[in-house]
Amino acid sequence: MPRLPLPRTRRGRLTALGAVVVVLAAATVLWATRDTAPPAVPTQDALIDMPAAPGSAEQVKIDTTTFLPATVPAPAVLLAHGFGGDKTSVADDARELARKGFVVMTWSARGFGKSTGKIGLNDPDGEVADASRLIDRLVALHQVSTDPGGDPKVAVTGASYGGALSLLLAGTDKRVDAVAPVITYNDLAQALVPNAAAPKAPSAGTPAAGAFATDGVFKKSWAGIFFSAGSGPAASGSPSAEAPEAGQETDTGSTGAAGTAAAAAVPSVPSGAGGPRAGSADPCGRFTAAVCQAYTELGTTGASSQASLDLLRRVSPVSVTSKITVPTLLVQGESDTLFGLDQSDATARQITAAGGKVKTIWYTGGHDGGKPGPQLRAKIGDFLWDAVNGGDPGTGFSYDVQGTLRANGTPSVRTVNATSYPGLTGPAAERRLLPMTGPVQPVVRPAGANPSAVSGIPGLNGIASSTSRLGALFSNDPPGQAAQFTTAPVDGQVVVSGASTVRLQVAADPAHPQPEAVLFAKLYDVGQDGSRVLPANAIAPFRVSGLPANGNPVEVTVTLPGIVRPIEGGHSLRLVVGTTDQAFASPAAPAVFRIALAGGGTALALPVVPGTSVGTPAPVGQIVGIAVTLAIALAAVLFAALRRRRAADIDPDLAGTPLVIEGLRKKYPGGFVAVNDLSFRVEPGQVLGLLGPNGAGKTTTLRMLMGLITPTAGSIRVFGHKIAPGAPVLSRIGSFVEGSGFLPHLSGRENLQLYWASTGRPAEKAHFGEALEIAGLGSAVDRRVRTYSQGMRQRLAIAQAMLGLPELMVLDEPTNGLDPPQIHQMREVLQRYAATGRTVVVSSHLLAEVEQTCTHVVVMHRGALVAAGEVGELAAAGGEATFRVDDTAAAAAALKAIAGVGTVDVEGDLVHADLDGLPRAEAVAALVRAGVAVEQAGPRRRLEDAFLQLVGDQS
């Protein structure tokens, strides 16, 4: 038998060993991630007789399926389907729960699938009573485990229509131990006939409290979809066709893992499989007479009688939330024009007031954006398992923030976790006030309310609101029909997390008096280029009654729809108040109204919920790719370990921290110490300015950070990895330290492509479009670099550093050689990049630029750290004081006359003075004695003062 030739040298043997390890690691990953069919779940089908509804002799049959876990008895979950679906719509979710260990019962509600009876919209005497009898059946079959007292362990969940059923059952059947409604409503009357205007702002203190005022505006588009889903022939056992986009799963990854939720969450027109039922030509379809009468009234008049409102509230969770005390998980969609965040907010407040513990999740989907994906379903399953087994699932709150950058076509998403839902058991939600401007504006409602404004299309709104281009196709405000008010551009990113409010004045035109106005408010996110996006295509309809015929205004607070939207620095918000909208019932009579901001400097009140941000886990395909990459990296580490006889240095506790420098020192031959005992830390999302005079050691520090030179002592860790020349973690850093080195005869784009090709990484990983969009080069990217100005070269260098969308970007003096307008543009580039949730470290000696660009600063001098912290904190440490006065000349003279006071400067109605240790109160007293009125006194917040105080005398 021939002998295989083996490498003769030690180096060759190690190389061969490394190759073998790589192959084995890849094979292991492929084996571990191979497709394997999940274990089958046994099922039991049954058609169960239910008592007839009160006043009816009709026997109702409910079609059920029970999914059994590996071991019974076990805790049970009743899993209800969405409107327009049936039990098959939630079969996959039921199997997930059964594999987790639950006995799961699904069923087709009255009027759906193979079940008989009339649709009562979760009537307590109909659908809710049916669900309670299903618990009886599970208990009778001895399939459900019990607690020590003999009570069955039962939870209920479902989405939309099914979510409301779960709440109604929890409020009427004491055997329910936990409930997890998904994208559902609190009050169907408020959801379908909302009014966002009230004399005062909501006082709940929660982030998405709605106005919930009476005499609302009919949401005819969504209501029509609902009615159509119950008017046609039944699906006879087949799942209904969901509305566009509703079948897509939405997940954030930060919401955890475990299993159940929504399948047919969106109301839709049944497919008709199995043929029409008798009587399908009836205009009331499969609805009860009472429900049909209420819809007919709304559809024909646009208004509802008290009887109709009472009916809608009777079949809504609001009728029982005061009785729910079991652990509750509320999952609500941020892209949902049917049941907005205000519905979940109201339910959370009511159950908390009843003594129940409420946990809340807002995710990026909804009736417009998609049902929960596997990670969120897993989170729901974990909650139910903990709750029915006596655990404490907690009262936390999390919401998803969808960014503007896209990777492989998917928007970036991060989740913000808060300890509790604001305003329930802790402090009220924070509100950031943004002043608004705009004159009194007349608006016209044309005859027939036609043409109408377009705010979106139910079921497609999630797509429409994702970008300004698509949003423009789905959003239109006819000229003359809307008033507009704007805010100034925001200084930095503001994440709106809930329902904003604004105070408005509405008046009828005396020449065309009207007793009331039906109006529609929208809040647009407007970019620096004028493009606008209507977040979630959400709109707030409101009715203002009692308008005086003489044209005097009526003042109201309008609560805008609950949204989660990051408003980037430089963007503004535009409030549009119109007279029509195609999704709602508008009065047909022509009218003219005058819309104005309320007096006294009206501000837009934006809810802000602080918390801890976490990123989104990669999808399974990306996880497999990452696993393969990690396996190869592990093999490389092993090979390096054999060569260098040492292991890689990784601190897992710092895996989420972009940069930690500890005890860093660099001593050059000859004894010169460039950096000495330097320590600081950079957290995710920060823009850190490394500040210091020339020769402070900034560039040396950055060169060590990039692995270009080796420290004499100390350590640098990036995401927990210790930096060394050639360290793999360097691929997660984008840098501009040594100069760009662009080829002048090539275009900017060609230079970037050439640079990326030299890294050996796939072209699809470069994200050229995103980097160029942030850098803002426009069409100039296709010109030869020799034609570029210095500012354009710097921006191209920044775009090069951004390729691959690195998690940490390091820039050395990026504004060198730029004039003021170019510096301003560079600042916007860096802030736009940081607004994506990544981290930027920038060294500079330009104090004003650091103050305007950075969130945090590290001050170095002669190689050592002299100060670190937030920019505002360091700026406030300067020795000067500022006084706002009525007579600046007299104030300056009075301050100069005080012994020990240094420089005194006048700036507008402000006087700045170096008090040199003199208490500010004594300076104020001297000004008052001089007859000067002092309106305001405080420290002069200038980074330059603090910097000179720290290093000025030694530089």
TrEMBL record:
Cited SMART domains: AAA, PepX_C
Keywords: ATP-binding, Hydrolase, Membrane, Nucleotide-binding, Transmembrane, Transmembrane helix, Transport
InterPro entries assigned: AAA+_ATPase (IPR003593), AB_hydrolase_fold (IPR029058), ABC_transporter-like_ATP-bd (IPR003439), ABC_transporter-like_CS (IPR017871), Galactose-bd-like_sf (IPR008979), P-loop_NTPase (IPR027417), Xaa-Pro-like_dom (IPR000383), Xaa-Pro_dipept_C (IPR013736)
Gene3D superfamilies, sorted: alpha/beta hydrolase (3.40.50.1820), Galactose-binding domain-like (2.60.120.260), P-loop containing nucleotide triphosphate hydrolases (3.40.50.300)
Transmembrane helix recorded as keyword: yes
Native source species: Amycolatopsis heterodermiae
Region (Disordered): 234-280
Biased composition (Low complexity): 234-271
Transmembrane segments: 623-642
GO molecular function, one term: hydrolase activity
Residue span, ABC transporter domain: 659-887
Name of protein: Alpha/beta fold hydrolase
Entry-linked Pfam families: ABC_tran, Peptidase_S15, PepX_C
Protein family per UniProt: Belongs to the ABC transporter superfamily.
